[in-house]
Amino acid sequence: MQQQLRIDENTALVDDMNAREILESYEEITVGEQLLDDVLFFNLFEKTFLLFSPDKSDPSSMAAVYLYNDELLDFPHIMLREERIAEGKEMPSGTYRYVCLFEQESIVNTLVPYEDKIIDCIDRLIELLSMNSSEQTREFQKEFMFYWNSESKSNRKYVAYIEHETQFTEMDAFYGENKVRLIERCISLSDIDDRNKAERKWVHHIENEVFYIPITDSRGILPPHKGFSWSADCVKNIVFGKRIEHIDDDTYSQIKTIIPKTQDLILVFGMKTEQSNVTFALKVRCNNHKGHTLLNKLLSDITAVEPLSTERKDYLFLCEQIGNDIGLMHKRVLLIGAGSLGSYVAFEMVKNGIQRLKIYDNDKLVEENILRWAFGGFGIGLNKAATLQFLLNMLHPEIKVEACAEKITEKSLTNEISNTDIIIFTIGSSDEQLKLNAALKRAHCSIPVIFVWLEEGGEYSHILVANYQKPGCFECLYTNDQGAYVNNRARKNTEIASEKGVIRNGCGGTRAAYGTAILLRTTAALLDVIRNIQGEKITKNTLIDISSDRIDISDTVFPMEACNCCGNSVQ
Amino acid sequence: MLKLKKEFADFYKEIKIDKETNALKEKREILEEDIKSKLPTILKNHNISIARSDIRMIDQGSYKYGTTISDDVVDRDVAVMIPLDISISSDPRKIKGYLRDSINIPARTVLIKEPCVRASYYDNGEEWLHIDLPLYSQSGTSVHLARGKEFSSDYSWESADPDGLNDYLCGQINGNDQLRRIICFIKKWRNVKYEGATSDHEVPPSIGLTLLACDCFSAQSTDEGDNDLLALQKTMKGMLDRFTYTVDENGDLVKTISRDLPVTPYTDVFKKMKDSSIAHMTTFYNRLSKAVENLTNAVNVESAHDAGEYVQKVLGSTFSVPAKEAVAATAQNRREHSFG
Ligand SMILES: [Zn+2]
Ligand SMILES: [Zn+2]
Q: Burial code of A217-256, b = ≥16 C-beta within 10 A, e = fewer?
């Protein structure tokens, strides 16, 4: 097929061929009725297809293929739902099933010449129809959730929250208005007790016990599709496979031991393949045989199985979907300062895999600051830490943000060390940071501490990573080589430039003027620093300079041996 | 990029069986328990005295050294060894009959075969598992295998060393993952090519293929990892080269192969196949030559797609052929790399 065209694809040979000529060049294709210029039927492998060529006037368009009048063919990527066309229009009556040949937005169509789009489309169709059974299984598994959820008859959606996806576990079911939450017991959701007026939003139901069963070998496990519905045998095959074992020993020994208390059950299966990570729930209706183990119940008591429309929404899953560092999930972060920088940092941290955050700030949000506070208009006149807590907890019910509406003291900071894995300062004030830095040193703090601050003028900012077991601390920057106090040596801004950036607003108060670019830039650099500490790419105490054109290890002398806090003179 | 590396890895994942399924383990344990609890009584009725604790079960076959591949019917081998004086119990057919009687219940179909007693299990009328039980007598250090069908005049206690064979194969295979994969591939080839076989004797036995594969194995790897394509080609070529000419009953030259057991009784594992018909040897030789030819082509062609098509001719449609290079390259160049 297509050898000639393929070889010459960059020459003019394929130019100016129409769809009919292209189709005719395939020996396995017989061209049928032509409906429009480049819309025509063809036969391939004893099936009839309709080709819609791309729109010549729109370079971003692509070719499409429909399977005509065949409701039985069950094949990956051939859609379940058909369009039914009645007599009388441009198209012959019958059913048309769309064939999905391209992953969404996987190709830049504009780069592909018109003729190649048709050739590519037909090549993919031939490839699709020539798949062997293991390739078909792989393709079906890639779109498992689409097929599974299409099969659900219930209008409720089941939302799974799982933290240990490789372990068998019991789950709790909470029913909401049109959703059901299936929750692994170790997960607590912060909104589960929410009420709508007097009514609970989520009601714990116990009439069906729920079990999560991880599948370790996905061979041969297919979603329901045309001509194949799920039955008790599919469940039996997973928990007690004859030829292939689909579950691990631990799961098997648990289902052999547990005696379910309810007649009907909900099973949640988790299946990870190279290409996909799917979680699907089903209701299992059973005869009532008291005393049967879960295994016996599944092997001998099932009367019906009903696929339930399922999606997984736990924090772990959402983090995996966007490539977050899963290692951060159980780190507790103490954030000191919920001003402009702190608000941006807090928001991004919870979106980057940090689930547990404690925020200290005694300040209230004032209206003139809303353009440089991450959340704009909400919470004016309220405590900044409490406002962040409220907003961040709304993002996801597994996010646990605590707020302290007070100024952190040396004593409270020292007490927090043992409950924290990382400390981040976003307060700016040199006096405060020097004081707290000294307190951490005195307390022999052994967890990583990160100081983040912006320079006036909106151009430069800095990140300092300090491990108090090693040389280098915040005070080093305020110390010269004689051990005398000097102003922050990391500063990159000149006096004149800084004068321009200062706004005086009466009573001697000054504010550094800057847009939000420096906040975003610094926050992004901080996220990288946290990842690199976690990944042990940053192991020494490090000072980082950030500007609009670079992020780099600082050339400022650091650590400073003469430092009165961490240097040589200190024991 | 190592040609067909991913395809071979996927293929192995698709066909390998790591260990017994729980369903199989349960059936085997019940079977073993039945033997231990019922066989001593049955033997006692025939004036043979053994204790339950005298019965020894020896895990044998591919499950023991991890070369099991998935198949429609699961094939499990467990040897049963009992203390027995064969100068008194000289007819192995009778003892095999007693073993059969100890396990003959409706849940399984039990049949006496020439080298063993077979318990078969059915699911909706289709056999999904059989457990083969070769029966050994032990007296002092001498061990004998009970051979012969129930009513056959051809029967014997054959000197044997099941533990020695296990040790030999485990020593060859354990710790050599590429060899383990190559054995699986060769067995899969055999299953594909002999799918329509009507009698066991037509088909090269697993033990024969396994021993030959160990003999002829050629480890192949590069910086990029193991080269299973080349290892398979060289190993099967080595097996092919082991065939020699012999003269058949019509005086024609035919290719045959022999491989003696590495332990007592040192007999040729292909003897039954040869005795059944020399034509089976010719077929074996021809099929193996064809496989080597296809694999050699796969090694020599540049295109991974074309190589995949050659390998598919050997290992069957379960082996995935990678997309044509032109299609793959075009797709790569035009792949969307930007996101909003
Ligand atoms: Zn698709
Ligand atoms: Zn210092």
A: bbbbbbbbbbeeebebebbbbbbbbbbbbbbeeebbebbe
The bound ligand whose nearest atom lies closest to the alpha carbon of A98 is: 1
By CB atoms closer than 10 A (0-12, 13-18, 19+), residue B201 is: middle
Q: Which amino acid is at A537?
A: K
Angle (deg, nearest 10), helices B177-193 and B278-300: 120
Domain edges within chain A: 2-130, 144-313, 323-569
ipTM: 0.89
Question: Which residue type occupies B170?
Answer: C
Q: A107 in contact with B at a CB cutoff of 8 Å? A: yes
CB contact under 8 A, B336 and A135: no
What digits encode the pLDDT tens for the residues A142-185? 889 988 998 999 889 999 999 999 999 999 999 999 999 999 99
pTM of the model: 0.85
* Residue A186 buriedness (CB in 10 A; 0-12 / 13-18 / 19+): exposed
Per residue in B44-71, pLDDT (tens digit) is 999 999 999 999 999 988 998 899 999 8
A-chain CB neighbours of B14 within 8 Å are 134, 219
The CATH superfamily of A323-569 is NAD(P)-binding Rossmann-like Domain (3.40.50.720)
Q: Residue B12: which H helix or E strand, with range?
A: helix B5-15
Domains of chain B: 22-159 (3.30.460.90), 166-324 (no CATH)
Q: Could you give the dihedral angle defined by the CA atoms of residues A517, A518, A519 and A520, in that order, rounded to the nearest 10 degrees?
A: 50
Q: What token pair was written down for B283? A: 């077929």
Residue A565 · residue A473 · CB < 8 Å: yes
Contact B22 A240 (CB under 8 A): yes
pLDDT, tens digit, for every residue of A311-348? 999 999 999 999 999 999 989 999 999 999 999 999 99
